[in-house]
Amino acid sequence: YSMWKKIHQVDRLFDVKFVSVRLNLDRYVLFNRPNRPTDMSTQLTGNTCYFQTYLFAVLCKVGQLTIARDGRSVDVANVERLEEVAVRICRFLLDFFVEETDRGTILMRPLTNSNFVADFYRFKVAPYHALLTQYLARYSDGTIPDYEAQYRSVLQYYQETKCLHKYGKFTLGGAMSSSPNTKSLQIVMGANGADRQLARADYYKYRAATFMFGFNSNIMAEIDNFCEFNSLRKNQLLRYYGELHPAINGCAQAIVEAKGATPYRDYYFMALFEVGQRELIDLHHYTFLIDLCAECDDVDEDLKGRVGVVNNTLLKHTFFSTCKRNYEKIIKLSDFQKTKKFREFLHYFMSIRWHQDFIALGFPDINPKEKDINSLTQTVFYTTDLMRQMQHRQEYDFEKECINQMARNTMRQYTSQYDAQLDMSQKYKVHAKIGHGYTYSKYNTLMHFLNVAQSYWMNPDLSNISIFGKDIRTLLA
Questions:
Q1: What pTM was estimated for this model as a whole?
Q2: In this predicted model, what pLDDT tens digit does every residue of 284-328 receive, in sequence order?
Q3: Quick one: which of 124, 113, 136 has its CA closest to 47?
Q4: Distance separating alpha carbons of residues 6 and 324, to the nearest angstrom
Q5: pLDDT at 272 over 70
Q6: pLDDT averaged over every residue in the chain
Q7: To the nearest 10°, the Cα dihedral for 78, 84, 90, 95?
Q8: Which residues have a Cβ under 8 Å from the Cβ of 450 and sit 6 or more positions away?
Q9: How far apart are CA 439 and CA 452, in angstroms?
Q10: Angle between the 79-94 and 49-63 helix axes, to the nearest 10 degrees?
Q11: What would the pLDDT profile of 15-25 be if each residue is shown by its tens digit?
C-alpha cells in the first residue's frame, strides 16, 4: 500500500527496481508466447490493451498462479484447465456474431460493441484472426469456425432487415447554460492559438479578453473554414447574450414565419447538437439571419429589425478609426452614427460582407487592465481599402507606423480568407437515409450507416456529442 501511495505522488520511484518474472510453463497455451513459453504474450494491435488485460486476468484466475520458491518465477498450477479455456476463448471469438445453438437455431449478435478483438472487415490480414485460427488448428480436435460465413450472414441480415430499431418519442428538456461560470471560463489574451480556443472544440468555454480583440486580424486570418467563422461569431455574441436576448429570442419561429427565409438555413442549422443549451440554439438561428440580411434584398422587415437591434446594442462595445488622414484616431460613436458606415454596421455587421470591407487591427496580445483607449491599446476597425493603401507606407508618426505594420503582417492572409461572395441562388436538396446500408467504424466494426456532409464533420459543434452512449466522432470516423 505504501508503494501504491508513492506511485501516485511521484513521477519516478528511484528506490524500486523492476525485475522480469518468468512463467514456469513448457508449452504454448495462448496466454504466453509460442516461441518462448516462459514469457507472457503481448498485444498485437494498438487498440487491444483491454484484451491483453483480460488474458492476464484469465491466466491468473484459471491458471492459479503462485510465486515460486526462488522468488523470480511464477508457478502455474492448472495448465490443463488453461488449455481448455484457451480453446473455448478462440471458438467464442470466431463464433461470436453468428452462433449455432444446441437447439439448432442461430444466435446473431450483429449490433455489438465496437471494441472487439478479431476485426471483421479485412479479417484475413488481422493478427488476432490468424492467432486464433492457428491455435485451434494446432491444439484442438474440432473444426475451425468459418469466419467468412459469419461475415456473409451478417451482411445478409443487414440487407434483408430494413428496420433494426424502433425508438419511442423523446423530448429535450431542462436548460443547460452554455456560458460557464467565472471559475471555469478561460479568458484569451493572446492571438497565438486563439483560433483553436475561440472557434473550435468547446469554443464556448473560452472568451476573448475584449469584444474587439475577438475580431483581431491575427485571429481572424487563422480561421480555416466557415464553420469556425460561425463559431467565432457565436462566441462573441455569448458575451452579451443577456442584453441581446430580447432581440435574439424567438428567431427560429420568426424565420419559419418569414416568407422565403428558410431555403438557405440548412448549413447553419446545427442546433440539434447543442442539447439543452438555449443560448447556443438561439445564436445558431441568429447567425443565419446575419448573412441572410447581408446578402438578400427582399428580407422580411421583422428579421431586419432584429439584426438592427442587436448591432445597435453591440455598437457601444466597438471602436472605429476615423479612416481619414488621422486614421490613428478613434472616432466618437456619436460622430460615427452620422456616417454611411454606421448604416452598413446596422445592416450587416459580423457578416462575410462586413469583413470584406473592414479589418480589425491591433497588437496580437492585449492587457485587459489597460485603461487608456487608443489604437495601440485596443483592436480597432479600419476599412480594408484604406489599409491596402497605407500598409506599405512608412510614417514618422509612431502610432501610424504601428498600424501600418499590423496591416503588413496580416492583410494579405486576411483578405484572401474573406474576399469572396456568397451565392444565394444555389439550390440543393440533401437526402440522408438512416437505417439503410452499412459501414465500418475506426475499429473495423460493421455497423449501421450514418452519413454527414464533410463541412458538417468539420463543425466544432459536433464535439462532445454522444449518440447512443458513444461519441459522435467515434461513430462517424
A1: 0.55
A2: 888 888 988 888 878 888 889 999 999 999 999 999 999 999 999
A3: 113
A4: 67
A5: no
A6: 79
A7: -140
A8: 434, 439, 475, 476
A9: 13
A10: 140
A11: 667 788 899 99
Mean pLDDT, residues 220-240: 88
Residue 245, C-alpha cell as written in the block: 436576448
Question: What is the distance between the terminal CA atoms of the chain, rounded to a whole angstrom?
Answer: 42
Distance CA 473, CA 459 (A): 11
Task: Check residue 69 and report its DSSP letter.
Answer: T
The total number of residues shown for the chain amounts to 477
Cα 141 to chain center, whole Å? 50
Question: Which long-range contacts link 15-24 to residues 24+ away (Cβ below 8 Å)?
Answer: 19/72, 21/72, 21/73, 21/74, 22/72, 22/73, 22/74, 23/73, 23/74, 23/76, 24/68, 24/73, 24/74, 24/75, 24/76
What pLDDT sits at residue 113?
Answer: 45
- Between CA 366 and CA 184 the distance in angstroms is 20
> Distance between CA 203 and CA 196 in Å, rounded?
8
Closest CA to 48 of 100, 114, 107, 97: 114
